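Record 1 of the preview.
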Amino acid sequence: MADSTVRVVVGSARALFLDALAEALRSVEGIVVLGAESNHRHILAEVHRHSPDVLLLEDTPGSDHVLRLASAVRDRVPSCGIALMTPGSRPGAVSRAMAAGVHGIVPMDAGLPRLIATVRGVAAGCVTVAPSLIEGMGGTDGMGGAGGGGAPLNARESQVMRLTAGGATVKEIAAELYLAAGTVRNVASASIKKLGGRNRFDAARIAVEQGWI
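->
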């Protein structure tokens, strides 16, 4: 297989949805579905068996079973990235998911293209969270800057980190904020230093986990 191929295991408690999702992903060039399971123990076994690039899970509102599974995968198969499909923004949901080892989060109503982008982003090692979910966390003020709680980022750094967490490239961030690409890189570098991240994606992860963006 080509190096760009993304190997995926899919998990959902809803059998019909699971089958439809797996079939949709199989039609996407560069994505290989290794398994589709509805039982959490079977999902973990599939991840152990195949060591996929990404485990794609459907969240279950009102239950922490999915996050416990994500945490178990993170501990036992750390090379596997985890993407989560969620019904919508709920207080603290993004922070809890990322603390459990989830690397990408996409709303259920986002559509297949966004889901595919999230899966590819997670496979590439990027933290990929839909901007709508981050905005719903309540960690920003009306100007797009960081909220309270000792957030170290200024308004521009918060904007760049928020877009980074959404999977945007430097070029895309520059276009969105009407900045030069060099300026975006400088702002990202400042954010990395403030947050202690390894790179801009790791810095964005830290900012999301702390509720600063």
